[in-house]
User: Fold these one by one.
Assistant:
Number 1:
Amino acid sequence: MITFPILSLMTFLPLLGALLIMTVRGDEESVAANARSVALVTSLLTFAVSVYMYMGFDQSSADFQMVEKYDWLPGFNIAYKMGVDGISVFFILLSTLLTPICILASWESIQKRIREYMIAFLLLETMMLGMFAALDLVLFYVFFEGVLLPMFVIIGVWGGQRRVYAAFKFFLYTLLGSVLMLIAILALYHQFGTTDIPSLMQMDVPQALQRWVFLAFLASFAVKVPMWPVHTWLPDAHVEAPTAGSVILAGVLLKMGGYGFLRLSLPILPQASEYFIPLIFSLSVIAVIYTSLVALAQEDMKKLIAYSSVAHMGFVTLGIFTLTTQGLQGAMFQMLSHGVVAAALFLCVGVVYDRLHTREIRRYGGLVKNMPRYATVFMIFMLASVGLPGTSGFVGEFLVLLGAYQVHTLATFLAATGVVLGAAYMLYLYKRVVFGELIKADVKAMPDINLREMAIFAPLLALVFWMGIYPSSFLNPMAPALEKVIARYNDANGINPQGEMQP
Amino acid sequence: MRPFEAPALMISFPELILAVLAMILLMLAVVGQKENYRLISRLGVFALIVIATLLFKSNPETGTSFGGMFITDSFAIYMKMLVAIGSAVSLMMAGKSLEREKIDRVEYPVLILFSTLGMMLMISANDLISLYVSLELQSFPLYVLAAIQRDSTRSTEAGLKYFVLGSLSSGLLLYGASLIYGFTGATGFEPIAQALHGQTAVSLGIVTGMVLMICGMAFKVSAVPFHMWAPDVYEGAPAPVTAFFAIAPKVAAIALLARVLMGPFGDMIGLWQQVIIAISIASMVLGGVAAVTQTNIKRLLAYSSIGHMGYALIGLAAANRVGIQGIVIYMTLYMLMSIGVFCLVLMMKRRDKVVEGISDLSGLAKQQPMLALAMSIMMFSMAGIPPLAGFFGKLFIFQAAVSAGLYTLAVTGVLTSVVAAYYYLRIIKVMYFEDAAAGIDKSEDTGLNLILIAASLAVVLFIVLPAPILNGAAEAALSLVQ
């Protein structure tokens, strides 16, 4: 058992690192070097702490663990409360894993204002971890919105040509969604006098209120996921963000929406969740098919992967709202897998972008000849994204479709076409970038990936295979918490586990 | 004849002291051989800090004196402390800038002291007559201050505009007060409340009187549609004066509005709630939309303050204890953020010339990273983005709206806050995303730097230690709404 407040330690460790970087003085070069190493060490330490936390995590329990609670807003019954369960613990690990990778990936590609960049990333990590660990709605909201600040700066300062437009679009879009969630949180608070998430999960929220609150939460989470038709900020943000920004955006920030559905919408608003299943299913299926088709037509590598993210997240929302064991596990797994694979794909784009400074697919071709190692790495992640059995992508998509099939055959059929389309656009991308004749002089001159880049890819490669070959080590610990969500949903809607309505 | 009551006089001790000190300073200023602005200004700051301390130590029990014209309670004490601290800080901020602009006259601190005295009396007003007198005592020094840069057309124009429109609003207020007196036969707040209590059909005279009074007070808080003076006055007045306008008088005006509506007109909530909701929505929308196209930072801040007053009025529209608590918290944090922002405005100089364009800030993040960081903190906070203090101001205000069932108001509020976020972000964009223009001078004013650092830290660290302000606000609200 871990007795000290490990979650707070883990959450605020990056903040400490950021403060440390702020105090660094000296000439520009030494400041940059110090900032880089402090950021890397801090994020690795955070990762170590999170792994230690996971080792103390009781995998058989569905309850919140390592709970910390302190008074925060006196007179309002709003507390600083943290805790993890089988759902949040994996997102925390994903965040702590991706942050050092992002910092490594920015080692050379970021050349200006390095100190501020590192501070922004560490701040971002604190916000992400806090959000996944928060067990109070107001605290959750604080971290949920707090993510916007560093991300806005990361896109706006270190982004590409249209970075200002992308940063504003990202910020205002997500803000618009989340402020509605704030009102919903206050409505719940007004009804029950508490914002404690575990207590709210026990409450019977009145039907009418449930639906409004659900829609408000949907406004916020749908933008984050993002679901069709509010996904349009994502391609812009991804294209303009620096590589590491895209990695963290695809790897963690998109998961905040799915996490929100699992943590808040389903357990607190079970009846409304049932009521809105058709809406979510339709949006998910449209997202899968439409954005896959859009991805086929992209000329920009990052944009293509961005659209593929929307399609993959469509599977996630589909899986969550099947409310079956397989569906939920699949959705969780898909989120984790996408977190690793999409992050890796953006890193792959980053590698060639660092060398040629363009994301246009036409400018490449024939990379397999002069960058064989790169071609191999890229291929593995590309196939994982397609969902090749043996890689992480397969497990998630398969489970989601399995879960969905029990609930709605047509939706499953339509979503399954997304798998085919996914294979089409990814293989097409791979063909255009890696195969073909190596004729362009500047492409010929590109060196293969170096040791630092290998070090970045290695843990992600290992994860892709680990998740693909032995998914149980991930599925088992999350199962109790997911079962609890399903049990709560069935209970509230009067469904017995066989799926028949009770009289 | 009423016997002289010494103990009852004690509850207005801070005001009495301030009045005496202000007059002593005036004497010093007049008698002195040559104008000694620095000395008078420092003494003024000292006097205000003494007053704030006195208020902090004073008895929070409710009590009246001057024949019921003056009331003191936790609400009054809290708001007066805010006003005193705000005035003290803005006087400290003004120092060097006034000297540089050659308007470092001894009148400046004296006028600020008198205006502050007016504000404190306003917060404690418990009678239509003391309300009007204190309001004018507060306003007249402000008119003079706006025009203190006598050689500048903009400044004198601002002063004149402020005076004419201010007089108009005073007239409306006075007319409303006279109607109330005519129809209830009383000027004291308690007798008016008793006269209105339990009335089923309120006479048209009272309604007209009340609405006119609301108009007069809405002018003082610069709420739409009585906001027209704010952008011009903010822009025209010298920056230190604008800072003072933004920091202190609004706190007092909102406090007065809350006291009048919750006190004597408490039973007529059904009549004034709609008015306040309309004013609040109009202020939020106009404050948000009109600021988007501004290029002058003072003008932008004027519209931003109009918007902020709209949010504060949500708490009043809720008309319950949570709402008043929300207002108190909101005004505290708003004052804090205004102090920070105006520190930066006062620092905006290029080769010793004052600059006011937003584009003059471009590339600030490269030249003066700490200053840009402080400004971004203030902007994000004003936009209400957590984890900064401004978010909590909005949180409690919206909570009040939800608790009163005013969902439309709450949703309008959050939506306009997204629009407002755009223009706050625009300033951050100019500082961070754009390459350096000519830049602005490094601030040599240690006092200003220190105030800015303190305000930034307070805005960032509010989340860690919110208890003192929340508890203070809870107590204040409890004394106004039982």
Number 2:
Amino acid sequence: MNEGLISFLSQFDGHKAFVKMISDFAGTDATSTISFFIYLAACLAVVGVMATIGGLGTYAERKISADLQARQGPNRVGPFGLLQMLADGVKMILKEDIIPSAADKPMFIMAPMLCIVGVFGSLAVVPFSSGFILSDLNVGVFYLLGISSLVGVGIFIGGYSSNSKWSMLGGMRGASQIISYEIPVTLSIIAIVVLSGGMSFGTLIGGQGGFPHEWYILHNPFTFIAFFVYFIGALAETNRAPFDLPEAESELVSGYHTEYTGMRFAFFALAEYIEVFVVCGVAAALFFGGWKVPFDLGTGEAFSALPPIIAKNIGQILQLGSFFTKTLLLYYVVIWIRWTLPRLRVDQLMTLCWKYLTPIALFNLIMIAVWAYAFDGKSMFELFTAMGSGSTGGH
Amino acid sequence: MFDSVLFLLSAILIVVGSLGVLFIKENIMHACVALLTALFGVAGAYAVLGADFLAATQLVVYVGGVVILMLFAVMLTGGGAANENKFGIEKIPAMGNVKTYIIAGVNVLVISLVVIKIMANVMQDYKAVALPAYESTVEKLGTLLVTDHVLAFEVSSILLLGALVGAAVIARPIGSTK
């Protein structure tokens, strides 16, 4: 149905032979059944890896904040304290599951699940490499925006159902913040969509190259601004500092998850850390060339001396490395910002969104459309080289 | 097989969610969440029909925007069980008396006649066929929106402008002349 994992696998003889063997054995065409099981395995792998990254995110957060504040951070459990998240997980599971007696019970239980579903649903289109993407939907970015808005509903319902003033205020702030900042974020994404001419991550990354001057962030001055608008908006959408007003501990105790304990609280925390990974991955894919590797090493053609399956998979591993490097560097920046900047006030938050980011994003969108029309979608670098070679620019 | 499973799941979501909207009386927030379920199911139904863009739009507009705004509005006006006497649905006189039932019945009759008139053409020469091969709908929708249906497109933006002006008028303090 769509490009993705199966179309990558089905180019190998081994996969075809395996499908044929099972089909002969079962007596029917087993292609779709095998695809189903491959997807199942891949989904389980992605969810497992992402949950681990979410857990390691809490570790990274503490370790980096400790670095910035000249402290040690967690260093008791395992080497360098790396197993801290397992200790935390055991603690969370063993804790008593308290549901306040005046809480709205079904919605109280549903809220953390909505958050987790929204985040894990968005993982379906995150492009880890050219072959390893669960589904390269035609409307990839758009789907991601839609499904991740479930997180906002989850936060809001969590705040409402706890029947506590702190939670209520936190949930209200969370919802208004997420709705507001969705506008500049979406406008920035649309600007890149205009430039690349498609909403699937395959098209978006395909328009870029392995080197920085081929990335969309350095495509023209307006995409450079669009990245920062996107990044600020994404920080606000994931409720990260300096926009962590929904859980501002100095005024709201802990915001929308004040009343949550044990695993339900862990779900909220996990959803937040995985969502940060997802928005960083989207930023890497849209602005930093995603899984593109320099010199086209990612296609595996450079290793043509090796058998094709090995060569392709070396390429895939390089692509995975490229994607994860970029994403985790952005992840570091997100944590770094959290421990550097003070929190905004509510009115400053809304002013920043509606009076600054939204007009800038609109202006950017128009200017990028004009650029794409006037210069035929050519980047600054291409225009520069065209000038050097004495031809007549991009027309 | 996969399509059937997806269709069944979406259908169950739509039916359960819609029934929830109708029959959950004690807490309007729960009804809102039931509406969320139904709208999610509609997105699934679009996906079954291969309308990928429409499915994603359904998620963005309804799940991300409309339902959150409805929850917001309910919360600001007080939708909890404790506020039933103050804001509960039964206490609003315009709702649920003989007059409104008659008006609603007439409306349902008119609308269903119109819908049946439209559907009749489709249903008369209906044959059970397999769904067409999957293809992207984004380009077709985009082309149609700015060629054949450009009037509807522009008129809907005027509707939004009207809504904006209305909101500004309502939000302005009473008696202010500035």
Number 3:
Amino acid sequence: MTGKKKSPSAIAANTIVFLLMIAVFVLPFLYIILMACKSAKESALMRFSLPETNLLFQNLGHVITFRDFEMFRALLNSTMLTVGAVTLVVIFGALFAFVAQRKNDRLAIIMMGLLVAGLMIPPSVVPTVSLLRTLGIYKTLHGMILIDVALFLPFATMIFRTAMTGIPRDLDEAAYIDGAGPLPIFFRVILPLLKPAIVTVVVTSSVNIFNDFVGPLYFLPGAKNVTAPLTLYNYISQFKTEWNLLFANVLVVSVIPLLIFIFFQRQLVSGMMGGAVKG
Amino acid sequence: MKKRGSKTALTMSYPNWFYLPAVITFAIFFIWPTLSAFYYSLTRWTIFNATFIGIENYVQFLSDPMLSIGLKNTFIYGILTSGLKTILALPLAVLLTSGIRFKGFYRSLVFFPVLVSTIAVGITFSILMQPNQGLFNVILASVGLPRVDWLGNPKLALFSVIFVDVWKGIGIATVIFMAGILAIPQDYFDAVKLEGGFYIKFRHVIIPLVRNSTFTVILLSFIGGLRTFDLIWAMTGGGPGFASDVLTSIIYKQYQAGFYGLSTAGNVILFFMVTLLVFPLRSFFNSKEIEV
Amino acid sequence: MKKTGLFALALMVLLALSTVLYSAGKEEAVEAEGPVTLTYLVASGTDSTQAQVMTDAYTAMNPDVTFEIELRPGGTDGDNVVKTRLATGEMTDIFYYNAGSLLVALNPGETLVDIADEPFMDVVDDAFKMTVAKDDGVFGIPNQTAMGGGILYNKKVYADLGLKVPKSWAEFAANNEKIKAAGLTPVIATYGDSWTSQLFVLADYYNVQAEEPNFAADYTANKAKYANTPAARAGFDHLKEGFDKGWYQSGFATAKYNQGLEMLATGQGAHYPMLSFALTAIKENWPEEVENIGFFAQPGNSASKNGATIWMLSANYIPKTTTGAKLKAAKDFFAFVVSPEGIATMNAGFPPSGPYLVKGAELPADVLPAVNDISSYIDSGNSAPALEFLSPVKGPRLEQFCVAVGTGQMSPEDAAANYDKDVANQAKQLGLAGW
């Protein structure tokens, strides 16, 4: 804790922290990578060891080309799903939070309460399927997008509402006096100032939507609609699991969330600053 | 330019229709299915038709001899995961906002598990926790400790899953705390500087001033813990036997078995339980909130 | 706002909208004459490989008909996918699923195409038809072979230790003590795949019906219970005995099916209570060892009444949503599966794990020893179908109760009583009379 001073005890403390961090957070991922490098037979032993021969590229190649490059379709579907849902979540959530926080009247409080309930109630699968069918959007990407929007709105709205408390009313007023209507005020004044909160929402919900396993299983069945996490199940079955390919698949489907994170990493902490997140 | 309008005119610039996109989507795709679930929970519902049977599903769900295990486990899971995340993430956040070397690298490390799919994390750890060649036991054995059956021992399985949940989720909690700490104005630290001591700083500045973050972490992880499903499913499936079943896994198994009405009744019960626990907690926290 | 930010936002909105439009535009293609593509839902794993082999062979003969195989998870996850998709009318053109009690839960009369009168059904054995029939309809064609459920054992271990195949539970228990004394695992348990825990209970059915011939009928009619029928409860007692006497290997509570197969094949374990379809996987992974694996029926109390419990085959079905040219193609594919060419294709791709229930279908000459063991029980008349093919009621949580007993968390008495409640739930859900 003593900053840049290089006393022996500080160096020792630094080393201990370093080793602990590596042990706790790196070893499990190292294991995934090692398994992805192995042959089927070697990986079945499940040891934490270097592979006899490095088959990483063969395994990755197998995973990517499996069933006519199904992986590309899966990544494309998941990306469209994530981009579509997250965009709508951000815009709908921010519009709502903007007015709800500014007015803070009875209506706003009641609706906010309803949304918060959405954070707690588990979604009900079968009624949702029948609803999607009635609307004719079952098994379609936009049906799944709308479901995800409904599921992720509550969290986003909470974050935006809190972030709104940090944006002075004077700014709306000034824009209003300049003759701007509500929409321009929202898009030109509010939205840019919400950027840190938006980053928070984008990172958390895109990672969750991208990795969602259960949702697409129920609401988006069909070989054409395969999403990234479902490809994991190509290698796990009731009767046999191909560990090397499974972990190679884990690596492939983790790439996009990782990219999202690297892209937004710097803004993430600042995005949660100022109590931007709270119950 | 002339200043136009009074206060009433100003409120005109917050039109109610801004609510609509969110409210309509939420109402159609969440509230409607949830409400129809209430109705279906009163029926014997096969995939093809629903027969009204009153509260029989609720009676059946609550009289299930295995339910008590699930309820107990749900509480343990919610309390332990939120408690541990709070206790561990705060020091971690202090560390990661201090002058320590490789700070940026550590921040990414801690957040990384959040990015990986829960299913993949669950599978990985269930292998690492294997009784014979699993890494955990290999390490224990190398320092002369007895092997532990992390997921196979009925008394231990739930706690092993809780450990992994904390590992996977601590990144979010840490980031929330880091944001809270970074938002503390430097003056506060300067004020206690003379009195010295890291402990003083931690006890008298950080802890009181990150209270809002603490509430957020506790609340979010408590809700998450009560609703948890993926990780338990990937690691133990609620087993061995019923040993690590929680409410959601019981509900899911009844759903799988085709007992849709029964499973929906379980959902409604879970909803009331979460509401009864979380709403009071939330309003308590809101009343204790501080302005920095 | 910075221009770039606004631009990025506009881009995102555009992307989101185009996603919605893109998926909205892709409606079902209009049915055309000529080439037909059949969608085919199968469980991932061996079943999907088999589906691939059979459909490839068919497409080679009929280039106009191609298949698109969709995978689903196995086990109860998969049951749910099948049920949901049938209920919502979104099933594939043909699909593969269990026969017996699981099929009844699909409400076949309302959801599946009745193929009782199709000419290709003539060659299908009546014993099989019984398991895919409800009321007057017959709904499935057999896939693969019937199976024995009992004890797979390592013959090398038996030879090394000078053991004889047990005919009664007492002999089995005595063998286990000798195997344990030799430092090997007497009984392999793999509760990490919890379905494998049920064998001691389910494969005991030959013994149950030997002592209580009316059990299946009484059980379906809500008269006989596991808790008050000692012969039926014996399966749970066996699970407990194995735990108390330390017959299971260390780490059995999380061990996986595949690890169990390895232990058996390599002789680390002597017995594995299992269905004979496991032979396929053993042959694939340990081809040199599969000849050392034998099968014997799960022994009961009396050596004079010794016989095997038989599992019927899984089947292929056509949902009612398949019509027109697709229905015609689907039926023609089914005719191929049970034809001599179809059987030959299956034999070439997969070692049979029991007898075919198709008239005139021969097992190949180089059939595995364990399959011969099963056939000899059937040929000598000492076999009975498993309970799930005689009664539509099977509690969904049986495997959890079995694991709870086998890990020492629950007594056999409690498990039997609780399982009876589970069964009652299922019977009510199915709307059976008398519950």
